[in-house]
Amino acid sequence: MNMNVIEFNQVSKSFQYHKVLSDVTFSVAQNSVFGFLGNNGAGKSTVIKLMLGMLNPSHGEIRLFNQPVKQVLPAGFVNIGCIVDTPVLYENLTASEFLSFSQRLKNLPRKEIERVLEVVDLSAYKKQSISGYSLGMKQRLAIANTLLGSPKLLILDEPTNGLDPQGMQDMRELLKYLPERAGCTVFVSSHLLSEIERIASHIAVIHGGEIVKQDSLDNLKGTSGELRISCLALSKANVVLSNANFHCSSDQDGDLLVSKVTREECAQVHHLLSKNKVDFWQSSFCQQSLENVFMKVSHQKAAS
Ligand SMILES: Nc1ncnc2c1ncn2[C@@H]1O[C@H](COP(=O)(O)OP(=O)(O)OP(=O)(O)O)[C@@H](O)[C@H]1O
């Protein structure tokens, strides 16, 4: 059975009279990559601190591995790896030397170091001084450090912050496949939608201290999107499709845009145009991006 590794049940948090989280409810399934999205100040770090027992909730219940958080921590920390601030690395050491601190502290066999270096793809650089590493490599090394001892849950606060495009891509590849490669569930917070969209299997969106959306990435993006059609008889196409209750508009390039269509409906659109002798030379379907979903949710929330 697939259990929930993290459960927040109607959790609220106030700092004196300032309520920063209201009835936050979400769950993170085992072996998923869970993206926690929100703008600056939305409440992401507060949620992570509550999850790690660094703060107490004002109301509500938090469970990790099916037990109240206070019972799991701190003994359960062997099951949890986290990076919430910029990791401190000893730059004059090699990666192997650096990792050997935690390996010995956790009383693990030496071969654990080789295993985690392999997972984060740093084996080839293990004898080089950390001072020569890029920021992305340092971040991956910090993740390797948390993976020593095979934690079942990895919590990362904004792990791609400050990385260059290559560093971001490497981090993306690493996080996406961590459940498979290291057998752990990943909780990753970010304000970078495009990053989360490429990494996460499940997503929650927090806005002003409230969860405004939570679902699998596929469900959140929905199956519908926009169909762009290039044709000469634009107004005829518009009439034909509008009569069939499709939502049509045109863009600056003179293309016809049919919004909120599923892939099946795209086939109907093509059929209708052909049947009514409207020639088109190009048609492309674009699923809505997470950014669109996120902006819609944020606007709806701001208006309410
Ligand atoms: N210790 C504290 N005392 C008072 N207010 C706090 C405290 N910690 C956080 N806050 C407030 O709670 C709100 C949420 O902050 P939080 O750091 O959780 O947001 P965030 O989504 O992590 O933002 P960012 O992406 O900027 O780090 C903010 O308004 C912040 O000012």
Automatic annotation (TrEMBL):
Short name of one Pfam family: ABC_tran
Keywords: ATP-binding, Nucleotide-binding, Transport
GO MF assignments: ATP binding; ATP hydrolysis activity
Domain ABC transporter residues, every copy: 6-233
Family: Belongs to the ABC transporter superfamily.
Protein name: ABC transporter ATP-binding protein
Source lineage: Bacteria, Pseudomonadati, Pseudomonadota, Gammaproteobacteria, Alteromonadales
